[in-house]
Amino acid sequence: MNKRVAGLLISCLLISMTAACGYEKQIQSSDHDYGSRKAGDAKMHGSKMYGTSSANNPYQHDNTFFEYSNTLSNEVSKLGGVGSSIVMLTDKNAYVGLALDWTAVGTKSTGHTDEQNRSGSSEGVYNHDTGSQRWDNRQLVSPYNSLFTVNDHSMLSDELKQTVAVKVRELAPAVQEVHISANMDFVNELNEYAKQAWMNHSLTPWLQDFNTLVKYQFAGGNIMPQQIKDYENMRAKHRGGQSIIPTN
Questions:
Q1: Strand pairing report for 177-181 and 93-100
Q2: Labelling 128: which of 40, 48, 97, 142 has CA 20 to 30 A away?
Q3: Cα 169 to the chain's mean position, in Å?
Q4: Model confidence pLDDT, tens digit, residues 146-200
Q5: Residue 206: half-sphere exposure toward Cβ, Cα within 13 Å
């Protein structure tokens, strides 16, 4: 009898362990865990889908047009760990700006911190430095108590970038490369381009600045374009009869 009871207990234990292992593997393969980094992770099967290709074309970021993709932006935003995303398509590439949230683990590569200061939340204020309780809401992400970002694309989990790139390529199979960043300035600038698209304004006048931006972010460029966040001044000039659209 004792042997029979012992056998039943062992069987139950094995079933529980099998179920637990299966659940753990399911989580590791999902978009809720980008930090397991274990061999055999389904998210990393196959070739690398993001970043510079093996061809390493020095003109890869000389795009001839770019456009905002509402569909891709929405679909990437649905992934675990992504609070919001802005996706731009060009004649060659897809560029993805990510604002991260807390719905997944391991979104950052090991040892890196985000660009936001959230200490004000414990003090009942928005901006810890000034004590302000207000956010002007003009930017998608800010340095204080917002969705979070990291300074360089190398600070993002490879599993997260692979998952995002696979999703982009599913919906836009013609793209040559998928470049992904959660840099605060980059995300906010893409958001400004998206605002132009939402207002049915052409993005063509901003092409040179866009190429400068993506080269700075992904190709070691040392120049940042003039940021569109100076919109308030531009709007003021526009109200005075001057155009807000650059002419270069």
A1: parallel
A2: 97
A3: 15
A4: 799 999 999 999 999 999 999 999 999 999 999 999 999 999 999 999 999 999 9
A5: 25
